[in-house]
Structures are given as C-alpha cells and as structure tokens.
Amino acid sequence: MCMVIFAPLFAIFAFATCGGYSGGLRLSVDCANKSESDLSIDIAFAYPFRLHQVNFDAPTCEGKRREKLSLIGDFSSSAEFFVTIAVFAFLYSLAATVVYIFFQNKYRENNRGPLIDFIVTVVFSFLWLVSSSAWAKGLSDVKIATDPDEVLLLMSACKQQSNKCLPVRSPVMSSLNTSVVFGYLNFILWAGNIWFVFKETGWHSSGQRHAADTMEKQSSSYNQGGYNQDTYGPAGGYNQPGSYGQVGEYGQSQSYGQSGPTSFANQI
Questions:
Q1: Whole-model pTM above 0.85?
Q2: Most CB within 10 Å of its CB: which of 24, 76, 117, 208?
Q3: Residue 264 pLDDT > 70
C-alpha cells in the first residue's frame, strides 16, 4: 500500500523540482571609469542546464566596448536522464496502482503479472540509484559553474586590480537539492518494495513448497528410522524373554525328578 500511495507522489516531486527549475545570478563590475561600469549583470539559466549556451554581456572597462561571454559546462545529460526516469517511474507506478485496485483478480490469475512487476521493480530500483547519483554529481558541477566568484573570473575587466567586481546575488539551489533527496527516496521506496513483489511471484511460493517438502521428508525419515522402532525388541535379546523365560537345561527338572528316583527304586 505504501508503494501505491508514495511512488507516484515521490516521482512527481523528483521531476518537478528538477525539470521545472529556473534560476539566475547577478554580478557587478565597477570600472575605474565610472561611466563604463555595469552594476547589474543578470545571468539566467534553467533546466536542462546547457550552461555553455547561456550568454551574457560584460563591460571590458576599456571604453564602451563590451565582451560577450558564456557560462562553462553542459550538464543536460544527467539532468535529463534523472527527469526521464522520474517520468517513466510515475507512469508505471500509476498504471500499477490501477491494476492493483481494479484488476487484482486478473493480476493473480497466472504468474506472469507478478513476474513482470518484480522485474520492472528491480530495474527501476537500479535506475533510480544510478540517475540520482549521476544527477547529484551533475548538480555539484552546476553549483561550481554558476558560482558568482567563478563567473567573475571569466571577465577580462575583473583581472585588472583597478576595477572592482562583486557578486550581487547567488542562484538559489534549494529545489535542486530537494530533487536529489527525492531521487534517493525513490530508490529506497522501490528497493524496499522488491521483497513484497517477490512474495507475489511463483518463485517464492515454489521455494516455500520445496522447504515444506524437505521438512516432511526429514520428519518421515526420522519416524521410519531406528528411533521409533523397537530395535532392542526383535533383533536384540533384551526384550525377548526366550532365553530367560523358557525353561532350559537347568529349568527342565522333569528328567531328573522322574528317572532318578525310579531307577534307584528298581535297584532296591
């Protein structure tokens, strides 16, 4: 039930916080000649973080000439991979929720449905781990590439000590940090659901039947073994009263009691 409730929600939060991001930073370049200064240089960027395509103009502090610069880096692959996995996970979990609620009987008719569900759950667990880790590394690189201090180093005017270059506003990355958190939460959710989906498959039930058959065979072997049979009865001499119960040579006193006295009387 937790999977049905939380999987679609966590997937939505993951791709919404990453795919819907847009941010920016502001820089200030104060030239020695105040007329050439630009105290408000705005640089905006957004998903999918192809920063090398983000261009901005900056003063050179050499007359009215301005230079055209761009940010460094292309982090679209990890971001798009993360969002793609989140979207497909949302669609699958939504479809699985519909099947669990409205088509439960058909789902359990044969073993194909649980097996497909088990395989897809394992695959998505692995993909969530890979995509979240890749995006966490990509986000770390995005933060470095959009750090105002790093961007100021790209400007030629900031390499001259007579000019003052300052960061005015840094980009807010809280939603991107949240997307990474939801990525790993999705991995934990899907990985934790593997056991519950496995119990629905025929592999689990066949394993239980094999264990039960093994226990039955072991118990029957103990019952048919020498512990419950009277091994000391038929084969041994402890339970047989033959040797002690039957009157042997010493117990048969008739021959001595009858023949002895008769012969002695005849002699007399």
A1: no
A2: 117
A3: no
